[in-house]
Amino acid sequence: MSIALPNSENLVAELRARAMALGFGSFGIAGADARPDLPEKLRQALEAGWHGDMEWMAETAERRGSPKGLWPEAKSLILLGYNYGPESDPLGILEEKSLGSISVYARNRDYHEIIKGKLKELAGLLARRSGEAVKVFVDTAPLMEKPLAEAAGLGWQGKHTVLVSRDFGSWLFLGAIVTSADLPVDKSHPQSCGRCTRCLDVCPTRAFPGPFQLDSRRCLAYLTVEHKGQIPVEFRAPMGNRIYGCDDCLAVCPWNKFASIAHEAKLRARDDLERPRLADLVQLDDQGFRQMFAGSPIKRIGLGRFLRNVLIAIGNSRDQSLVPLAEAKLVDEDPLVRGAAIWAMRRLAPARAEMLRLSFEPWENDAAVRVEWTGELA
Q1: 343 shares a domain with 200
Q2: Which of 50, 172, 245, 301 is deepest in the core (most CB within 10 A)?
Q3: How many domains are contained in the chain?
């Protein structure tokens, strides 16, 4: 049996105070073996195929299932939450079809960069005070932060699988410090969703097989960010004007009413990413894309996937002024972009699209794009 560090309570109090000073709103500690149920839950999700084409989840399953699988020396985990609650309802823009909806978490600098620096500072303090080893993680390693944060008392995993906090609702970035130090643990948070199913009911693609279960293959957050191919046809119309991520299930959570007033230190959105015009976005070239999204998580998906998303939104816009801009992308060098442009044209200007098909289809060398021209997917 391991023995906690001498004066560990004083050390934890110092760490907690420093975390709050760095802008974190939540702080909790869990033992490295706090969730022995995770390997089996992960196995079931992978066997069901809910991870989609995120093969790295299956490849790292053994390490992902347990902090000790990731690092055998681990004894304790410090879980921290950083508030990014929006100033207004992020779902309001969904009715403004000529604008693009960007998920709240992506409207500022990449949260990995912001939070990792703060974690490193806090971990350095722990290492100096304890003499123990530390590692920091921000959604970049096979660590199941959400259930571990639940074990550390930060909140509970809601029926939408996202961590919910009594103070911050569904708007928390999570980071973790894994350490060989044996620290006193906090009490886990009980599940507090009650009978509420708002997050499940609002999902435009029915991505939840059941409460606390998420099929990524049907999730717009996954499809617009992680998915590398064309958006499956059945999800294009429900996608609306969501061009990066989806906030629907988070935004309707009743606990969010506390998020806007709970903590002043939080990430705030860039003005230009709150209401971007589809007409401007679809005209971005590679240089413009890189400049606009420098330091943003959006940059990681690349111009092709981004334009794919924008063109699907244009197809859903009913805005005839966007037809020439969609048509211009029919000659894009990226087949992902050409395919999405065809779908947008078929939605906005079907007669014009059919006329153009006679010119474009015979010369198209990409099989998937040719299928878009035939209309067999529509």
Answers
A1: no
A2: 172
A3: 2
Find where tokens 């860039």 sit: 270
Q: Are 87 and 168 in a shared domain?
A: yes
Q: Which residue has the higher pLDDT, 188 or 110?
A: 188
The answer as to whether 1 is a domain residue is no
54, 65, 159, 221 alpha-carbon torsion, rounded to 10°: -20
Asked if 244 and 123 sit in the same domain, the reply is: yes
Instruction: Determine the structural domain holding residue 283 and report its residue range.
Output: 277-378
Candidates 53, 89, 139, 286; catalytic one: 139
Integer CA distances (angstroms), 38 to 134, 143, 144, 368, in order: 22, 11, 8, 39
- Find where tokens 């992680």 sit: 226
Short-list 170, 300, 302, 303, CA closest to 247: 170
Residues 229 and 337 in one domain: no
Secondary structure (3-state) at 268: coil
Q: Does 374 lie in the same domain as 357?
A: yes
d(CA 102, CA 83): 18
Per DSSP, the residues of 340-363 read HHHHHHHHH-HHHHHHHHHHHGGG
Between helix 8-21 and helix 111-130 the angle, nearest 10°, is 150
Report pLDDT for 1: 40
Identify whether 139 is a catalytic site residue: yes
Among 217, 244, 269, residue at a domain's last position: 269
pLDDT (tens digit, 9 = 90+) per residue, 167-204? 999 999 999 999 999 999 999 988 899 999 999 999 99
